[in-house]
Amino acid sequence: MDTILDRIANWVKLEKTDSIVLPRNYYKTRNLFQSELNNFFLETNDYLLTAIVGEIGNNSYDHNLGNWKDIAGVIFMYDFKNKTIILADRGQGIKETLSKVKNDIKTDEQAINIALTEVISGRAPEQRGNGLKFVSKAIKTKNWHLYFQSGNGSIEISNGNSDFKTKDDYIHGCLAVIKY
């Protein structure tokens, strides 16, 4: 799975994706993603894990409609043997999304922190903004592991603790890795 993760991480780091071959686990539209999410649930029979994956994956479609950097859709891969899930998109990212409703966000790390700790939505005036807080709380409660990066900001949730960082590499969109 690490080789696959490396390939996906490289995909979201690319400036241009003109000649990239997308994996079979790429879902251009929300309905294709939802269909695969339903298959995932049938395999796991885990409502909470499916809700977490659905929240992250659906955010890609909800917050990028008409604003994809170059390729619309989500890569959604899972490995039951290693209990690992990967989601990645080439959307506008957390900072760009939240900056539409909160224009004083200066860094990607700050944007991720806000997204996971404050009730805020990049889809104003809709009264939303609890999804990533739900993800964070559920990951901590179950003592699972989450690595999430957007731009050069990241969070790693492990052993119930959150560690926000600024990374050297830059992600175009979002990358999430869940280990359960």
Describe this structure in words.
The protein is α+β, with helices and mostly antiparallel strands. It has a single domain (2-11, 25-179), classed as Heat Shock Protein 90 (2-Layer Sandwich), CATH 3.30.565. Helix content is 40%, strand content 26%. The protein has six helices and five strands, in the order αβααββαααββ. It has helices at residues 2-13, 30-44, 47-62, 93-99, 108-117, 131-142, and strands at residues 26-27, 74-79, 84-89, 145-158, 161-179. Strand 2 (74-79) and strand 3 (84-89) form a beta hairpin. The longest helix has 16 residues, at 47-62. The relative contact order is 0.18. The model has no long low-confidence stretch (mean pLDDT 90).
What order do the helices and strands come in, and which of them pair?
Blueprint: H1 2-13, E1 26-27, H2 30-44, H3 47-62, E2 74-79, E3 84-89, H4 93-99, H5 108-117, H6 131-142, E4 145-158, E5 161-179
Helix pairs in contact: 2-3, 3-6, 4-5
